[in-house]
Design a protein that fits this description.
single chain, 379 residues, alpha/beta, DNA polymerase, domain 1, TIM Barrel, 2 domains, two-stranded parallel sheet, 13 strands, elongated
């Protein structure tokens, strides 16, 4: 028989699974707590490692369940220390995860879907059709694989390598809400992975109806893939804007549960040459987010094979940042990391899909933006 994974189950589901496998009802809760601790605090990869549990109980676990991680297809290390894993859990079910080490933190960028439906024009993942949502064990599995590779157990130890989680990998997390919520509950559980809510960030391209629910039910920090300050430009580069335009998105940010000066919303803004990087755009950006406790991340565009855009000139990025800074917003320019292994923001894509984008797509993308810009010009 196929063994079911215990990874991703909440405590009650874990207790029920053990009881169904034959663990006496009166001891199932205690046994669930023991297994939970081994899996999420100590990173046990198999039941034999659970040395303080009775041998017959370990045998029962091994006969019925698995703690298998996703298969690592490739593991790459950038010259700057960034790591990228391509993982697989079945035929065509491939997804990427990136670890970014910095002096004061170690951030893991986690995927929520195989592919994506949003088709953001600057994003490599967007050129890959959605295959399916990732399950809680596959979302958590990315973290477990990274912690294994980094020798980052136990999870409660001081000086750990993974200090922050960002749901900014492949896919739109709010289109996989229940599975993301289940996985992040374990990430933020003090008796499991034990990362505080402020160290977990969920990034959305703007699924407006789910934003308040994410604040109430998940409670993580929020990041918005903004990338444009007018609907006509955002309609092209972030097409979900046609469904949920800027005014609705910004209102959802203003009312996001828990947003405060201590817990600011991050607005991600990729710098595309001649598209969204004018100084007028910078002033409009400041006006758009006025009154929202916010940080603005300026992201130099990371090109990929066949990409339809170019990165803004560095001098233009600096001028743009200066306007945002003077308005009182922290606006760090994100240093591109892992470019040599295609691990930078917007570059993630399953390698089972050939890395290509047709010249026709590229030409159409540029023509759409140019057309939108012409419509903005005074006649």
């Amino acid at each position: 028989m196929d063994k079911s994974s215990l990874i991703g189950l909440d405590r009650e589901a874990l207790r029920l699974a053990l009881a169904a496998a034959g663990v006496p009802e009166k001891s199932a809760k205690m046994r669930a707590t023991q297994v939970w601790n081994w899996v999420y605090v100590h990173g046990a990869r198999d039941f034999a490692a659970m040395t303080n549990l009775a041998r017959d109980f370990r045998g029962l676990l091994d006969a019925n369940f698995t703690l298998a991680r996703p298969e690592v297809v490739t593991a790459q290390v950038s010259e700057d220390g960034t790591r990228k894993w391509l993982m697989r859990t079945g035929p065509g079910i491939e997804f990427e995860t990136v670890y970014i080490p910095e002096a004061d933190r170690g951030t893991l960028c986690v995927s929520s879907q195989v592919g994506c439906t949003l088709n953001c024009r600057f994003c490599h993942t967007g050129t890959q059709k959605l295959v399916r949502n990732l399950n809680p064990d596959e979302i958590l599995g990315q973290l477990l694989v990274a912690k294994d590779a980094l020798d980052d157990w136990p999870s409660t130890a001081p000086g750990r390598s993974v200090t922050n989680i960002v749901m900014m990998g492949m896919g739109e997390p709010l289109y996989n809400f229940d599975n993301v919520k289940a996985a992040l509950a374990i990430v933020m559980d003090g008796d499991a992975i034990a990362l505080s809510k402020r160290r977990v960030t969920l990034s959305t391209a703007g699924v407006v109806p789910m934003i308040a629910r994410a604040g109430n039910e998940i409670g993580s920090s929020l990041a918005i893939s903004l990338h444009a300050v007018t609907d006509d430009i955002r309609d092209v580069i972030v097409p979900i804007n046609k469904k949920y335009p800027l005014a609705e998105l910004i209102e959802a940010c203003r009312t996001y549960p828990g947003a405060s000066n201590a817990r600011r919303i991050t607005f991600e803004y990729v710098m595309l040459k001649g598209v969204n990087d004018s100084l007028a755009d910078a002033r409009a950006l400041v006006k758009l987010v006025a009154g929202i406790p916010a940080k603005i991340n300026l992201i130099p565009f990371n090109a990929w094979p066949g990409a339809p855009y170019e990165c803004s000139d560095w001098s233009q990025i600096e001028k743009f940042a200066e306007i945002v800074n003077k308005a009182g917003y922290a606006s760090p320019v994100r240093t591109p990391r892992g470019r040599d292994i295609m691990a930078a923001c917007g570059q993630l894509k399953s390698e089972s899909v050939k890395e290509r984008a047709s010249a026709r797509q590229a030409r159409e993308a540029v023509e759409q933006v140019q057309s939108a810009q012409l419509q903005r010009m005074p006649h």
